[in-house]
Structure formats: structure tokens, C-alpha cells
Amino acid sequence: MARLLITGASGLLGLNLALDAMTSHEVIGVDRGRLKSAPFRTVHADLLAGDAAERLLDATQPDWLIHCAALADLEACEADPELARQINTDVPSALAKACVARAVQMVQVSTDAVFDGAKAGGYLEEDEPHAVNVYSQTKLAAERAVLDANPNAIVARVNFYGWSLSGRRSLAEFFHHNLINNKSMSGYTDAVFCPTHVTHLGQTLQAMLTKKLHGLYHVVGSQGMSKYQFGVELAHKFGLDDREISPKSILSSGLIARRSNNLMLSTHKLSTDLGASLPDFSTGLDLFYTQYQEGYPQKIHAFLQ
Ligand SMILES: NC(=O)c1ccc[n+]([C@@H]2O[C@H](COP(=O)([O-])OP(=O)(O)OC[C@H]3O[C@@H](n4cnc5c(N)ncnc54)[C@H](OP(=O)(O)O)[C@@H]3O)[C@@H](O)[C@H]2O)c1
């Protein structure tokens, strides 16, 4: 059993990771006060405050750190690039240095969005990234800062869906919410990604730490699909009417932050080094559905009270 410190424990990844990891590890979640009744230990910290990285590690003495906190809203990053740089680049850089000094194994959660989407086919870890918006530029700068300071860290490029505290954080929740309310919505046909269930991602990150991997890894689902197709698959799983989802081009989205249209990543390196692959897409969607049937969204929502 390891002592695992998780930043962003109120976020989509941090919370689901903490709930899964607490069954086999001692979990400490870092939170800014949103979590009122989490079933794991929490510590309050604003990661932008002074020497937060050192103080947090000294106070909690973890074996592992999975750094999930970020400004992960692409439009918010465009609106405030300085804040985006501080939270997305400076904070992981400081954590990486603090982890080296204390021999803490660190995972920096990065993003598939470091690529511009120009490649036909799946991106490899050796492919040169080209970040096309403030969010991805700050995340790419973090990858470099973390591995420069701490070559033993893991940098994991991810993309995931699942149930969140707010009920609105993930693409799957967007489709599900609109579909059950019979609201029409758009699904982008020319934005391709490799969706991963957040719990499967969290389990894989723990397995990577257990195996003492280090360096850059693509940690996404093995099946690429458009965001439109993802919505349709979700509608079918829940027995909902997929005709509410209109196929649309991302070029006409009206979003400010530029998006890449091909974010398919190869996970060959991960499956070779880990000796295992992430569960396939249908297993992840089954889990998302089963969690809904079992009241998981309500269960996590109660942590706000
Ligand atoms: N969602 C995706 O599909 C996706 C795709 C690719 C990569 N990622 C990456 O995955 C990671 C997790 O993303 P997510 O979707 O789980 O994010 P999220 O739901 O937006 O959660 C962000 C977390 O960061 C915390 N945070 C922000 N500023 C902080 C600060 N100054 N001090 C302490 N905590 C702070 C937030 O706390 P509050 O609740 O207090 O605001 C929240 O817990 C991020 O690194 C993101 O870049 C996400």
C-alpha cells in the first residue's frame, strides 16, 4: 500500500481516481473547499499560494503524487492566459522539483491536445507536438518543465469521460444530460479522439506507478472516434434517441480556443512497457452506464454537502 497524494481531488479525474485508489492505497486528496464529506482524507490548499508545493509534500509525506489540478477549461485559458500559465505550467514545475528533493514518484497529467491534429493516424510519443491554444501551450510547457526537473516522473497524455461533482464536466455528461431532457445538441463529426473511462485511466496510472515507469506516455483508449459518434454510442447504450444529436463540423463551433481535429494517440509504448492495455471502449461505456444505474452520480454529488 502506497500513500497517494492527489491534487484536484474535486475535479473529474482527481475525484474518480481517489475513490478507486482508496480501496488499495492510503489516499490524500488536495481540495480548495468544495469537498465537504469525501470518504478519503482531504487537505485544503491553493496550489498558487507561495511555497504550496513544498508545504503540501512536507505535510503529507506521500510515496506517490498524481497531479490532476489544472485550469482545464480551454475557453477560460484563452480569457486569462497568465492564470493558465501559473496553474498549468508553474505549479507542476514546482511540484516536480519538490518531488525530486523528497523522492516522491510523480505523475503529471497532460493532454492529447498538445498536437495540432495535422497527422493522419495515431500520434506517437516521438511525434513533435504543436500546441494550438493557450491551454495546450501551457500543458506542453508543463510536460517539458516536469521532465527537465524530474526525469523519473511520468507524463501521461490523456483524454477521459465519467461522472463529475458538478454533473457537467465531461463530454459524456453533456450528451447524457441533453439526451435525457430531449434537448437537441451538436456532435462534431471532424473532431476525433480516443475516449477513456476515467476510472480505467485512474487504474492505469496506479499500475504505471506500481511498475515504476517514467517518462512520456500516451494513456488513452484504443478506439478512435468522432465526438458525434461518441454521442451516438452513448445514446444507444442508454436507450435514448440519437436523432437529437446533429452532426456538425467543429469549424462552425464558434469556440474561441482553436481545437485540433485529430487527437488519436497510439498507446503502443504504454502497452509494451506496462504489459497491459486499457480496457476497450465498450467496457468503459458499460461502466459509465452501470455507475448511472447504481446511483454513482448522486453518490458523488453528496460529497458537496
Ligand atoms: N477532462 C478531460 O477530458 C481532459 C482531457 C485531457 C487532459 N485533461 C487533464 O486532466 C487533468 C484533470 O482534468 P479534470 O477534467 O479532472 O479537471 P477539472 O474537473 O476541471 O478539475 C480541476 C481541478 O483542479 C483544481 N484546481 C484548480 N486550480 C487550483 C488551485 N489554484 N489550487 C488547487 N486546486 C486547483 C480544481 O479545484 P476546484 O474544484 O476548487 O476548482 C479541480 O479540483 C488536468 O490536468 C487536465 O488538463 C483533462
Structure description:
The protein starts with a strand and ends with a helix. The protein has a 7-stranded parallel beta sheet, sandwiched between helices. A 3-stranded mixed beta sheet has the order 10-8-12. It has a two-stranded parallel sheet with strand order 7-11. It is globular. With 305 residues, it is an alpha/beta fold. The model has no long low-confidence stretch (mean pLDDT 96). The chain has a domain at 3-165 and 194-224 and 264-282: Rossmann fold. It has 11 helices and 12 strands. 40% of the residues lie in helices and 16% in strands.
Q: What share of the residues lie within helices?
A: 40-55%
**Mean pLDDT level:** 96
Strand content: 15-25%
What kind of sheet is the major sheet? Answer: 7 strands, parallel
Secondary-structure element pattern, one letter each: EHEEHEHHEHEHEEHEEHEEHHH
Parts with pLDDT < 50 across at least 5 consecutive residues: none
Regarding CATH, which class of the domain at 3-165 and 194-224 and 264-282? Answer: Alpha Beta
Q: In CATH, what is the homologous superfamily of the domain at 3-165 and 194-224 and 264-282?
A: NAD(P)-binding Rossmann-like Domain
